[in-house]
Amino acid sequence: MDDLKEKYLAKIADAEDEAALEDLRVQAIGKKGEISLKMRELGRMSPEERQVAGPKLNALKNEITSALAARKAALADAALEERLRNEWLDVTLPGRPRRQGSIHPVSQVTEEITAIFADMGFAVAEGPQIESDWYNFDALNIPPEHPARQEHDTFFMSRAPGDTRPPHVLRTHTSPVQIRAMQAQGAPIRIIAPGRVYRMDMDQTHTPMFHQVEGLAVGRDISMANLKWVLEEFCRAFFEVDEVEIRFRASHFPFTEPSAEVDIRCSWDGGSLKLGEGDDWMEILGSGMVHPKVLEAGGIDPQQWQGFAFGIGIDRLAMLKYGIPDLRAFFESDLRWLRHYGFPALDIPTLHGGLSR
After folding, report:
1. 132 or 347: which leads in pLDDT
2. How is the chain split into domains, by residue range?
3. Cα(269)–Cα(223) distance, integer angstroms
């Protein structure tokens, strides 16, 4: 046993890596190792011999195991020291400007919109992106036969065979947030609901996932005149022009009555878009007075209260304001594009400081 002890302790001390240590472990205390084979011989010894040899063999095995663990820890410490020497870095060096991140145009425009409507007394409301069929359609007076409730226009969540519960969908608009806000808060209420929405559209100006902000105001005497003033003030502040002119065109949405598409006066001079002047009109959003059935779904009495609602595409606003030609580039994760169209992290939009600098 003394010979085995001296032999393996010397080899362990000379081992240069963990692989050599593992080989020594197998040779000494593995299933067919020398010390393991010695321990098997205990069964053939007399009780007196076993009382003497047994403790010695156990002590030898424990000593070899401890030596292996100590050598392994020493090798690991040496490897770490070598790595620290080779990877030394002066943490007091200044940062590299080219590694600074940028704020995505969608995030920036969302903050700009929030700042404008907050100044007009609108709070921000949020809701789940996976909605029940009732919140996404029924509560908004969208009939069962409406095209928006078909699979070619809406993403339906999969259900187990035989599941008879109402389906869930990826919300097609942020209007369900309005229903939830009315149920929770009641009237009067003024909110905007920005967020992601999902529809089966895929081309240069549409993507399956995009961003939308909807507004809702409910009060005793709210009218279309209030709606027009709010939208004019928003367009003037957002596009940072002195004057804008908008017009209502009669339209139809299930959740508003009357409904109106909103156009803004503009001109295309040499391919450059100018707002508030010219002889052209460009559609920018949809709006109208909240349908009485929608107020009822939100727990508000339409005989006592009325209000307006509107919806705007955030991605479209970003394209118009910052001259971004292709909607698909918003979601391609191209760092070159983001460096060009992105915003500094500390460029926080405020009305008094300027929305965009």
Report:
1. 132
2. 2-86, 105-341
3. 36
- The model's pTM is 0.68
- What is the C-alpha separation between 285 and 214, in angstroms, rounded? 10
- Per DSSP, the three-state class of 83 is helix
Rounded Cα distance, 357 and 349, in Å:
8
Say if CB 179 and CB 139 are below 8 A apart: yes
pLDDT at 92 (0 to 100) = 79
Beta bridge pairs of residue 103: 343
User: Are 180 and 153 spatial neighbours (Cβ–Cβ below 8 Å)?
Assistant: no
Looking at residue 199, what is its pLDDT?
87
SS3 label, residue 118: helix
Sign of the torsion angle spanned by Cα atoms 145, 146, 150, 154 = negative
| Structural element, H or E, at residue 47 | helix 47-86
How far apart (Å, rounded) are the C-alpha atoms in residues 128 and 123?
17
The rounded distance, in Å, linking the Cα atoms of 199 and 116 is: 27
- In tens, the pLDDT along 223-247 reads 999 999 999 999 999 988 888 999 9
pLDDT value for 273? 81
d(CA 104, CA 342): 5
Tokens matching residue 31? 């299933």
- CATH T-level assignment (fold) for domain 105-341: BirA Bifunctional Protein; domain 2 (3.30.930)
pLDDT in tens, 89-147: 777 777 666 667 788 999 999 999 999 999 999 999 999 999 998 999 999 999 888 77
Token pair in block for residue 225: 């005149």
Q: Among 81-95, 189-203, 300-314, where is mean pLDDT lowest?
A: 81-95
Q: Which two tokens stand for residue 283?
A: 């559609």
Bridge partners (DSSP) listed for residue 261? 249, 286
Nearest C-alpha neighbor of 237 from the set 90, 112, 101, 57: 112
What does the buried/exposed string (b/e) look like for 97-136 if buried means 16 or more CB atoms within 10 Å of the residue's CB?
eeeeebbbbbebbbbbbbbbbeeeebebbebeeebbbebb
